Amino acid sequence: MIFLGLVLIVAALVVGAAIVLGNDGAASLSAFGHTVPGVENEWQVFLAGALVSLVFVLGIAVAAGGARRSIDLRRELRDLRDEHEESVTTLEMEKRQLQRELARARQNAGQGGPGTVPNAVPAQRVAPPAS
């Protein structure tokens, strides 16, 4: 693709040079009802047209780049939103499971089931001996 683009660029430059060198007659260029100063030959009119087309192509490239960035940003935001929803769903499922386990543990503790310590006293801090 790069090679094809370079071939097209060279071909356009060759054709442009041939047009500029082959047209040396008198001409005038007017825009918006006014004559453009400094344009007196046909090749200058051609160069003015080439400049306008260059600005046009540059404008299209800038607009396409902006649209591409906007599309990429929207896609990234959508992916992040999906990831967030997945993580929230996962956390909600884990919360429900932990709540069930806690309810089972409390039920077993109330029944004196295996692995429970009735009347457990929380550990107290022991002050270090005074020296």
Question: Could you write a compact summary of the structure shown?
Answer:
With 131 residues, the chain is mainly alpha-helical. Helices cover 69% and strands 3% of the residues.
Q: Whole-number radius of gyration?
A: 39 Å
Tell the overall outline: rod-shaped
Please trace the helix and strand order, writing H or E for each element. Answer: HEEH
Strand content: under 5%
Termini gap: 85 Å
Main beta-sheet strand count, sense and barrel state:
2 strands, antiparallel
Low-confidence stretches: none
**Helix fraction bin:** 55-70%
Decide which structural class fits the backbone: mainly alpha
Q: Strands across the major sheet, in which order?
A: 1-2
Mean pLDDT: 82
Number of strands: 2
Q: Helix count?
A: 2
Description:
This protein has a domain at 21-110. The relative contact order is 0.04. Strand 1 and strand 2 form a beta hairpin. With 131 residues, the protein is mainly alpha-helical. The chain is rod-shaped. The model has no long low-confidence stretch (mean pLDDT 82). The protein is 69% helix and 3% strand. It has two helices and two strands. Helix 1 (2-22) runs antiparallel to helix 2 (42-111). It has a two-stranded antiparallel ribbon.
